[in-house]
Amino acid sequence: MNLVARLLRILVVTQLLLGTGALPRVHIISPGFFSKSDAPSLTHFEPALETGLETVRKKYPHTNWTGEILHQTSFIDCFSLRDNIQVELSKWYYTKASGEDVLTVIIAPGCFESRYLSQLAAGWDTLLITSIDYTENIADRDVFPSYVTTSPFSPAYQIVYCALLNKLNWTKVYLLYDTNSGSFNAFQAQLLPVRIPANCAVQLTRQQFTSSFSNVSEQLQPILRDFNLKSRGN
C-alpha cells in the first residue's frame, strides 16, 4: 500500500493547490482485450481490479476510488492492442478523461503494448502500472519517469530457473508445449530453451503437440519414447 499512500499525498497537495474541498478522486483506466486463453487479458485482470478497488475503498474511505475498462473493437489480441493502443487511449484521454482535480492512473496487464503505453504516460505525467509485461530498461527514469510494474519477470529470470534446477539437482528437463494453450505458455516455451545460460549444466529438450487435434495419441507416442530415452536412459 506504499504506492497508494504516495498517490494520496499527491492528491492532498493537488486539492490544496486547487482550493477545492471536494472528496479527492483517483480514477483508474484499464485498457485491454477480453480472451479466456490469453493471460494478459481483461478476462483475468478485471476481477482483480474490482476486488482491489473494494479493498482501497475500505482502507482509504476519504478518497473517491473509481475504475473504468477501456475496450475497443480494435482490441482483439496482444498484437492488435499494440497497434491501436496509442490512438484509442489518446481519444479517451482528450475527450473523456476527468479534469485536473482527478488523479488518473493507468493500470493494465500489459502485453506487447507496454512501451507505447509508457510513452503516453510519460507525456501526460500519469502513473502507469502493469502486472504482467514490462518494458526493457524500465529503471531508466529519464525515459520511463512514471512507469512501474508488479511483474515477476526480469531479464535475469532464466538465471533464477537455472539456480532452482541446480538446487533440486535436476540435470535433465523435458519441456512439452501444447500449441493449443495460451500465449503466456507459448512465450515461455519459445524463450526458455534459448535463454538458459550455457553454463547451467542442465540438458533441456523441447517438444510440442496440439491437444485439440484428433490424432493427439499418435503425436504423443514418439514424444514419450524420446522422453524415456533422454530422461530415463543412462
UniProtKB/TrEMBL annotation:
Q: Which SUPFAM superfamilies match?
A: Periplasmic binding protein-like I
Chain ranges of the Receptor ligand binding region domain? 98-211
Stored Gene3D superfamilies? 3.40.50.2300
Q: Which range is the signal sequence, renumbered to this chain?
A: 1-22
Q: Which GO terms describe its cellular component?
A: membrane
Pfam families from the entry?
ANF_receptor
Task: State where the protein is found.
Answer: Membrane
Q: Which residues form a coiled coil?
A: none
InterPro entries, alphabetized: ANF_lig-bd_rcpt, Peripla_BP_I
Primary location group: membrane
**The keyword Transmembrane helix is annotated on this UniProt entry:** yes
User: Which keywords label this protein?
Assistant: Membrane, Signal, Transmembrane, Transmembrane helix
This chain's protein is named Receptor ligand binding region domain-containing protein
**Species per Swiss-Prot/TrEMBL record:** Hypsibius exemplaris (Freshwater tardigrade)
